[in-house]
Amino acid sequence: MTRRGTNISLKSYDDIFTTEENRQETGEHVVSIPVNQIHEFKNHPFKVLDDEDMRKTVDSIREYGVLVPVIIRPNGNGEYEMISGHRRRYASILAGKEEIPAVVREMDDDTATILMVDSNLQREHILPSERAKAYKMKMEALKHQGKRTDLTLCQVGTRLRADEELAKQIGESARTVQRFVRLNNLIPELLDLVDEKKIAFNPAVELSYMKPEEQKEFYEAMELAQTTPSLS
Fold it and tell me: pLDDT class for 86, splitting at 50, 70, 90?
């Protein structure tokens, strides 16, 4: 994707779902967009599941429609990329809706990534793999925006200080952010076991320092022994 528009600094969750009055002040307005013209955000880290919550959302949309507009941006090909509202779009499709109310915003890749991550981090249930991928994506976007780009090394080996900026925004420690990002180094088989709570978080972080081929051997040994690792 090419970078488009200007940076828009996201200060809080309130910036994601603006009121109608706010939209009028900024010149934004809600329009109906065909759902088949809205495409998923590239490398979207959050899963859209056919679970009980989704069924409730589908029933609600059938009865009342989509009450909170999704946020999209033009993709340069006459269609759009979803920023906030993947679940609402999917539920609308299941509910048989052909269009969805949307706010169209011009924004660059980094701003879009930050907004996408922030809107999804408000979910009640987030898998470790989703959090790991989302934290990594937002850290990269923050670094591109120049929030903190000093190269000072700290005790845990952080090369850039975007982790501290992210930690401050989400109310976590930089250490916790770093450890979640480490999970991206796990092979898919092990990361799935973390999501399934068959491998605890701390052992998973330690396993992430192993080479992929070593992780594969470890996974096969786990399968053979039908056991899960402890931190020790």
Answer: very high
CA atoms of 139 and 4, how far apart (whole Å): 19
- Quickly state the pLDDT bin for 122 (edges 50, 70, 90): confident
Confidence class of residue 12 from pLDDT cuts 50, 70 and 90?
very low
Q: Is 6 exposed, middle or buried (0-12, 13-18, 19+ CB in 10 A)?
A: exposed
Query: How many C-beta atoms lie closer than 10 Å to residue 119's C-beta?
Result: 21
Residue with tokens 């982790």, as numbered in its chain? 163
> CB atoms < 10 A from the CB of 176, how many?
16
- Residue pair 87/20 in contact (Cβ under 8 Å)? The answer is no
Over residues 52-78, the mean pLDDT reads 95
